């Protein structure tokens, strides 16, 4: 996997992934930026959320469950001193589908957290990661 980060101006940087996609990162004006994009630490949190959501949907679909929507709401806390690593992350899953059973959704989330989601397993080296979920019929 490769990536490239290019300084644009002020404190804005363009990140380009090896797969050809780009994202703008910036910081707040009080830190020299213009607030044009997400912060790098926000990118890490988004990456973890995307990784685990992908896993959960994939696991449910592979099990032929009728999953129709999956949202992960994340809340994180960081250390107060440098390096300001994540110390706590909570992921709340909202999974929608027809006839989804609680034990199936719970197991998909556990498999992601314990086996498949590289991002959350890596971030779990410094942060306490917790999960909960709700299931909606639809």
Structure description:
This is OsmC family protein YhfA. Pfam families: OsmC. The chain has 138 residues and is of the alpha+beta class. Helix 1 crosses helix 2 (102-116). The chain has 3 helices and 6 strands, in the order E-E-E-H-E-E-H-H-E. It folds into 2 domains: 1-38, N-terminal domain of TfIIb; 40-137, K homology (KH) domain (GMP Synthetase, Chain A, domain 3, 2-Layer Sandwich), CATH 3.30.300. The longest helix has 23 residues, at 40-62. The protein has helices spanning 40-62, 102-116, 118-123, and strands at residues 3-9, 12-17, 22-25, 66-78, 86-98, 128-137.
Order of helices and strands: EEEHEEHHE
> Could you give the distance between the termini?
37 Å
SS content category: alpha+beta
Radius of gyration: 17 Å
Strand order of the largest sheet: 1-2-3
CATH topology tier name of the largest domain? GMP Synthetase, Chain A, domain 3
Q: Work out the number of β strands.
A: 6
Query: pLDDT under 50 segments (min length 5)?
Result: none
Share of residues in helices: 25-40%
Number of helices: 3
CATH architecture of the largest domain: 2-Layer Sandwich
CATH homologous superfamily identity of the largest domain: K homology (KH) domain
Topology:
Blueprint: E1 3-9, E2 12-17, E3 22-25, H1 40-62, E4 66-78, E5 86-98, H2 102-116, H3 118-123, E6 128-137
Parallel strand pairs: 5-6
Antiparallel strand pairs: 1-2, 2-3, 4-5
Concise account of the structure shown:
InterPro entries: KH_dom-like_a/b (IPR015946), OsmC/Ohr_fam (IPR003718), OsmC/Ohrsf (IPR036102). This protein has 138 residues and is α+β, with helices and mostly antiparallel strands.
